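User: C-alpha cells for this one?
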Amino acid sequence: MRTVTRLVLAAVATAVSAGSVRAQRQTAEQFYLPGAFNWSLLRRYPDAARLFNAFDYGHAVLYEALYTRPDSAGATERLAREYRFLTEDLLRRPPRFAVAEEAVAPRYAKLAWPAMLMFDWAHVLHRQIYDIYADSRLSDSTRIALVERVTDYYLSRRDIAFAPVPKDMALMDEQHFSQVFRRRHATFNGLIWAYHWLQVGLYEPFLLGGTEAERRAGVAAAVARFWEMLADPPRSMPRVMPMTSAIAPTFSARHPRAAVIFDNLHMVHDIISDILASERVPAAEKRRAIDAVLAEFRNPSTNVISMEHWRMMADHMGGLDAMGGPVPRADPPPPRGR
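Assistant:
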C-alpha cells in the first residue's frame, strides 16, 4: 500500500507541472507496433515483467535527485533514501503498470524531455521483443522475423531512435565529466547496472530454452541472479557496465541491431547521470550537454567502432564476471510424480 500511495501522490502533486512540460516540448510519442504477441511477457511471466516498471521509476528518481540536489551531500542523502525504498519496497512489490516518469521526475522532464522520449521509445523495443519471445504460439522463425520487424519499426523514428551501430566507449568513460556518478554513488550505480544486466540477460532463457518448462526455469534463474547482485552492495554488483554481446551472446548473434541499440541506450543512461552529477557541467549547460549526447547517439556516422571490436569490448572492460556474470542455466522442474 505504501508503494501505491507514494506513486499516486507523486502523480497528483505534479500533474500541472507535467502538463506544462508537454506544452513546452512536444512529445511526438508513438505506440507499440500492433500484434497479438503484445503483453505476452506480462501475461505469462508477470514477476519478471513488473520488475521493469520499477526499473523505470528507479531511473527517473535518480535523474530527479541528481538534478534537484546539485550538492554532492544532498544527492547522496536523497539517493540513499531512494535506494532503500527501491530495494526494500518497490522492487519487492513492483507496480502492475508502467510508471509515468514525468510525474516522478518533473524538473528533470522539463530539462531533458527529448532524453525521456528516447529512453521510452527504446524501452518499447525492449518490451516488444520480450513479448515476441514469450508468446508460445509463435514458431522460432516467426519470432526472428518479428523481432527484425519491430526493430525496423523502432528505427523508423529517426528523431528518437538510438543508432543501430556500436559507439566508442570513450563517449561514456573519457569525457571531462565522465565516471563521476559511479565514483560518488557506487551503490546506486551498481543497482542501475544490475537493472541493465537483467534487461538484456532475460532474452537468453527464451532463446536457449527448448520447452516452456525450460524457459520458465531460465527466467526464474535470471531474476534470482538479479537479486543475488543486491545481496552485498556494492561488492556483489557489476563493476562495469554490462554489455549485451557478453551477457546475451545468443540474442546478440541473432539480433545484432537490437543488441547494439540496447548498449547505446545503457551508455547514454550512464552519460546523463555523469552530466547531472558533475560540477564540471554548469547547471545552465546541462540541457545543452544532454542534447549533444542525444544527437551523437542518433548519428550513425560518428564515433563508430566495428562490430568485431564491439563483440570483443567485454574483454577490454574486465570480462564477463565484472559485468555481473553469465545468465545462469537452469534445469526445468522434474515432471510430477517423480
